[in-house]
Predict the structure of L-lactate dehydrogenase (cytochrome).
Amino acid sequence: PPLGAMINLRDIEEVAKKVMSMKAWHYYRSDAEDGYTYRNNFAALTHYFFRPRILREVGQVDTSTFILGMPSSLPIFAGPAAMAGLGHPDGEKNIVRSAANGGILYGISSNASCSLEEIAGARQPDQPLIFQLYIAKDRKVSADVLKKVECLGFKAIMFTVDAPVLGRREFDMRTRIVADDDEQENAPPNSKGGVSATIDGYFDVDIGWKDVEWLQRQTKLPIIIKGIQTVEDCLLAAEYPGVKGILISNHGGRQADYAPASIDVLYELRQTHPEVFDKVEVYVDGGFRRGTDIVKAVCLGAKAVGLGRSFLYANAAYGERGVSKTIEILREEIVNCMQQIGLTSLSQARPEMIKYMERTVE
Ligand code: FNR
């Protein structure tokens, strides 16, 4: 179907599922084990309702914000999701270009399909990019990568901490892309298969809080800790002077199954420790597909919301135009939501505009 027929992000996801190779679809869609966290990310969002205010003169709506001082036209960013090249030959470069056109930030995965030089080359002059780091067993390797991304002009480091080992992603495990048929025959039945297997093993399982200190010594760039899943860890992370942002995330349900929904952790943090939001910027991701989802998170104190799969799917289905369309759909939905609930700027978004409801609807 033509891109113009796409009304929302789910429409684009449906197209991606149809046009992608089985291997690529399984890698992108994969979740851990029984997918409870994957599905709960969506389900939890349905429990947060708005308390819309009326007669607020919503003719002019400003959706812009700053993320670590970098301007963003919307309170969203493209999250670091590996191997954009599985979906489209131009891989991350398409997302870089669409992010520039749409005025949003993009976090480049440690496991990007394109080289860092290619990605930097696809940038607009002055387009800020974030680099997502997994720490390698050999710290020297990571130290060199950090030097390189600083030289290339990346503006922040997103340190992912929810993946000491990969989650057991069963769609992906069943795919088993092994180059050599014999090897495939001989692969033990429970060995990791799929795309994940090819990128596992290189990163350190023994990362700890000491590595946040190590990272602070390696880079002057602001650090975002990605993959925080409890209020306790939000508080710990916010103690490090180099840590300027925390991203509440369960990796889109790809890591610990039964990790809590990100929106619920954000809500608990806002209820119990509102002061944290003044100390560090708080971001959230996992299952955000609608402008309403994003505005809810902003009301609960999130500076911005990341999306992972949606941009990969759009890139796979329609390339750069699809990624741009995804941003524009979200822009329209965010503006519409703000107008419906009486917000003309994101700075007016407050927790009082949200009500948690035990009851929701199917
Ligand atoms: C990811 N994610 C991820 N995170 C990260 O820090 N480094 C990475 O390399 C990847 N790779 C990756 C690949 C794929 C295919 C997906 C779907 C996700 C997690 C990503 O940054 C983000 O946390 C989730 O994708 C957010 O959830 P949604 O928006 O996909 O529901």
